Amino acid sequence: MKKQYKKNNPPVYVEQSAIHGKGLFASRDIKKGELIGAFKYKQAKKDGPYVLWVEENKGYTVLDDFKYINHNNKANAAYYDDFTVMAIKKIKKGDEITHYYGEDWGD
User: Fold this and answer.
1) 3-class DSSP state for residue 33?
2) Residue 46, CB-side half-sphere exposure with 13 Å CA sphere
3) pTM of the predicted model, to two decimals?
4) What is the mean pLDDT of the chain?
5) Which residue stretches of 1-94 are H helix?
6) The pLDDT value given to residue 103
């Protein structure tokens, strides 16, 4: 079952992913360079599920559906230091939104 967002919220929904577990998907076409949204977070003291490391010693637990952004070597979105997620490529409606988490992650 798709979780849709209301108007004025990110154009995304959560659904089972072919990449891993749940994934975040575009509910409409998203243009390259478009702000997808800002994520809610709390500072993490140690590594764990849904922890995003901005620097080696600064981790943040993502608290909302942006935590379901899976890794892809050819990512179409990126997390930024200001806790926003931007499209770095055009994302078509129904496409999974992905981020490049680094060389330690496999496709």
Assistant:
1) coil
2) 1
3) 0.85
4) 89
5) none
6) 75
Residue count of the chain: 107
- Give the residue from 22, 26, 41 showing the smallest Cα distance to 80: 41
Q: Tokens representing 62? A: 């993502």
Distance CA 81, CA 27 (A): 25
Distance CA 34, CA 57 (A): 29
Predicted pLDDT of residue 53 = 85
Residue 104 forms part of a structural domain = no
- Cβ neighbours for 13, distance < 8 A, ≥ 6 positions apart: 2, 3, 4, 5, 24, 25, 27
CATH number at 86 reads 2.170.270.10
